[in-house]
Amino acid sequence: MPDQPPKITVVEMFRLGLFQMGLGTMSLLTLGLLNRVMINELAIPPSVAAGLIALPLFVSPARVWFGQLSDSKPILGHNRSGYIWLGSLLFTFFAWLGVQIMWQLGLNFYRSGWEGATIPWLLLLGFCFACYGLALSMSSTPFAALLVDVTDEEERSRLVGVVWSLLMVGIVIGAITVGKLLGTSPTDQTEIVNIFSRPDRALALQQSINQIFILIPVVVVGLSFIATWGIEHKYSRLGVRTPDRSEQIGLARAYQILTASPQTAKFFTFLLFMTLGLFMQDAILEPYGGEIFKMEIAETTKLNAPFGVGTLLGISLSGFLIAPRVGKLNTAASVVVWQLGA
């Protein structure tokens, strides 16, 4: 019987949370900043821009495959960490590459509309966003599995709470940081006009956003290594729990287990509509601020800060004050009713 690994400490829990903090900042860049720039500064139709930033979600079923790969095929001797490191290198690269393709798409769209080279650049950008989503799945799914590997049942909820709270912290820090780095990017047009019609402003915007997509991805990659280095080797219980990998269930069996209970289907339906209600504003919040209120890019990016702070307060209040007193089921039901009323 292998020796049981030590219990993970609170300090290590917060260290693991640094990875999620980096993911929060990256989500701000892709879902918020690039979406705003494509719609307001490059005059790309909102439906096209929203479709592009949604592509990482369309490839998210690959998470199942990456999860199973990390169970059985280690990278660099690590079942989880190797995938996390390689995935973080890839998704930050594709984020940077996507920005460079976006400028070419905007320039060609300004020059010739949907003719000429615009469509090939659009397809290339879509492919880049899909690769970004695959790389994100490659990194984040093994990370979620790592959280299970390094904890016992009694301490897992605390680790998950710490890690996902730091995701919100990453959004808040990212919003403030990006706002500072962008400064006062000029967006004083009275209607949406492609910024390439004003070469001086286009150049200034390109330089500032390119700088952000170099600096922040480098920090995010560094955080992914700092967060996970040595954690799996010291705390993972994967070998203790599953000494015989041949007994592990496959994808088909996992699907049968998930669909065996009608209650499971109801729960996933609830999660679907809850997620829709929570994130439906993402695609329009920042472009709305730019178009209706003539807010600068830095100002609309900072709108994510109160959202993150509010989410943190909600998690803290529900987890420490409300749920222990009224119960988890009543808490969830009251939140749903409150959201519907709002």
- Characterize the largest beta sheet: strand count, sense, and whether it forms a barrel: none
Mean pLDDT: 86
Number of domains: 1
DSSP E strands, number = 0
- Helix count, per DSSP? 15
Q: Report the helical percentage.
A: over 70%
SSE order, one letter for each helix or strand: HHHHHHHHHHHHHHH
Poorly predicted sequence stretches spanning 5 or more consecutive residues: none
Q: How far do the termini sit from each other?
A: 55 Å
Class computed from helices, strands and strand pairing: mainly alpha
Based on the structure given, which CATH architecture is correct?
Up-down Bundle
CATH class membership: Mainly Alpha
From the 3D structure, determine the CATH topology: Growth Hormone, Chain: A
Instruction: Categorize the overall geometry.
Output: globular
Notes on the structure:
The protein has a single domain (10-302), classed as Growth Hormone, Chain: A, CATH 1.20.1250. The protein has 15 helices and no strands. The protein has helices at residues 10-41, 46-58, 62-72, 81-112, 118-149, 153-182, 199-228, 231-235, 238-241, 251-259, 262-279, 282-292, 297-301, 304-326, 328-341. Helix 1 (10-41) packs parallel to helix 4 and helix 14 crosses helix 15 (328-341). The longest helix has 32 residues, at 10-41.
Layout: helices, strands, pairs:
Layout: H1 10-41, H2 46-58, H3 62-72, H4 81-112, H5 118-149, H6 153-182, H7 199-228, H8 231-235, H9 238-241, H10 251-259, H11 262-279, H12 282-292, H13 297-301, H14 304-326, H15 328-341
Helix pairs in contact: 1-2, 1-4, 1-6, 1-7, 1-12, 2-5, 3-5, 4-5, 4-7, 6-14, 14-15
